[in-house]
Design goal:
This protein has ten helices and no strands. It is mostly helical. The radius of gyration is 19 Å and the shape is globular. The two termini are 34 Å apart. The protein folds into two domains: 57 residues, Arc Repressor Mutant, subunit A (Orthogonal Bundle); 145 residues, Tetracycline Repressor, domain 2 (Orthogonal Bundle). Helix 1 crosses helix 6, helix 5 crosses helix 8 and helix 5 packs across helix 9. Helices cover 63% and strands 0% of the residues. About 16% of the residues have low confidence. The longest helix is centred in the first third of the chain and has 24 residues.
Length: 214
């Protein structure tokens, strides 16, 4: 059973959503560069000091994902071809062998999870954020600067699913490929206002990646 967040956590989440909502509105109306943190705070009726408790910089309003907003996989189709395995389940599957899924399924599931976690439950807000990042050069550059940390995270996911060492060359190599594929898929999706859907793009990505396995 999922425990409902406490009142304090719900208030913090509400404040965070409000700041992001007003920031995105102002970015669309008057441009990212011409919008200041002070204007965002005025629109949300929140002090600058409160803003910086949630977002260290103006860029973070666009680029920082909500840590507690995991996707429900609604955009990604049926996962029955993974033997009923849910990529966002807390417990990973067993390592490859008689009781576990093949390693190539782990690679496919990891790409699904990367995208599901990035999109989260609020598809429209994420689409707006990514579309903005695609247009504003500093935001796009910073998005790609985060790749190293994302690769390490992806390698850890692959290691959990396959029983391999997350620092092994093959694991890191495939993690780098999947991370780049996930980022480019999301940017392509955002630049075209959500069309085609992510499920279609994931299928196309996996087809192009070919026999990528551990």
């Amino acid at each position: 059973m999922t425990t409902r967040p406490g009142l304090r956590e719900r208030k913090k989440a509400k404040t965070r959503r409000l700041l992001r909502q007003e920031a995105l509105r102002l970015f669309v109306e008057q441009g990212y560069d011409d919008t200041t943190v002070e204007q965002i705070c005025d629109a949300a009726d929140i002090s600058p000091s409160t803003f910086f408790r949630y977002f260290p910089t103006k860029e973070d309003v666009v680029l920082t994902d909500d840590p507690d907003d995991l996707g429900d996989l609604g955009d990604f189709g049926n996962f029955g071809d993974l033997g009923g395995f849910d990529p966002l389940a807390e417990e990973p599957p067993a390592a490859p062998g008689p009781a576990g899924p093949p390693a190539d399924d782990a690679v496919r599931a990891t790409l699904h999870e990367l995208l599901a976690r990035r999109v989260g439950r609020d598809r429209d807000t994420v689409l707006a954020r990514l579309a903005l990042a695609a247009r504003v050069r500093p935001l796009r550059a910073r998005l790609w600067q985060r790749q190293e940390a994302q690769v390490a995270h992806t390698a850890a996911l692959l290691a959990r699913r396959t029983g391999r060492d997350e620092h092994a060359y093959e694991v890191r190599l495939i993690a780098a490929v999947l991370t780049a594929a996930a980022t480019e898929t999301l940017m392509y999706w955002a630049e075209r206002n959500g069309e085609p859907g992510l499920a279609d793009l994931v299928t196309r990505a996996l087809d192009r990646l070919g026999d990528l396995r551990l």
